[in-house]
Amino acid sequence: MRRHTIEPRPGWQATVEAQGLIYPLTRYPDDSLRPYWDESAYYSFSAAEVDALEETVEELHTMCLAAAGHIVAHDRFADLGLTDPRLAARVAEAWHRRAELPSLYGRFDLRYDGTGPAKLLEYNADTPTSLVEAASPQWFWMEERFPGADQWNSLHERLVDAWKRQAALLPPGAPLHFAHSAADELGEDLMTVAYLRETAEQAGLATEPISMEEIGWDRLSGRFVDQRLRFIRACFKLYPWEWLATDAFGPHVLDTLDNGGSTGTTLWIEPAWKMLLSNKALLAILWELYPGHPNLLPAYLDGPRDLADGPGYVAKPLLGREGEGVTVHPGGAAAVRREEEACCYQELAPLPDFDGNRVVLGAWVVGDEAAGLGIRESAGLITDEYARFLPHVIQ
Fold first, then answer.
1. For the whole prediction, is pTM greater than 0.70?
2. What secondary structure letter does DSSP report for 351?
């Protein structure tokens, strides 16, 4: 694994925008615009490194599924903050019937520097983003800058194949709605959903776009409907389950949740059991089930324990995204348990530093298989909304 500097292509911004990345720049607090898509540098990996990372990702995914099964079997929903018994019951039902429910993708965030085993930082298998840039502009960048090279990137083909394999699980005769939140001013959610809709259409599925805010509730029929009052029978939503199940329409979601084969209900993708894989409590349960595993970091739910006396720890809200609410506590500092919100306390593993650029690997899973890599860099200790995306090649 190496970082290389390179001259950006002339007109790179228009190029990546035409390839679907409509948010190539990030606005900073000082109101300046700086590249989010950053092709002034790239990373290279050996084929052996990528092979090893693929094996690690698929093993971690298998372990996460085992942890989800453990949570359900031992009724540990409270550890995840799922204290509503009705919601917990629906999640458990979805888990038991998962073979009947379409499930698409997820993204592991890994600490890796090329010299030791990759370490799991977190897993988002409900609403992962940074997909468009990993699947499309990154591939075209490689073809233009390094013709004949290779890349860890089979995302597009695997997504299309996943829709084809799972088409039989969708309600017959009904279009698959694709929903994003109109509150996303950046446009990332819109383009992620638009791209996933494109892969579904390439798989032969009939689709309809909609925003979450446009989804209506028909009180007479007791069904969710779109703008033309058509029954929404199936919907892919880039909208966290913890919001979907608790907002104003939350009770209706649970009343009409299709957990496999029900009529008059709505099938949501990702399914409800994916809540188990996008909660930071998963990290502590994994460590409990697989203590000392080379790809895991020690993590606890009841406080930092002895991590404060060692390398330090990171306190992560159970449902935080893009670094929101994360605090870093170096070793030797007094242990502090955050009482204001439930957290996972994970051993501090500083991100690899390449000339002041701290890097995290986003390794994608489609279905149950490793599917590609996206790389983000940040200047600070936490990978947040100001991180940059860099392309990569396999040497």
1. yes
2. P
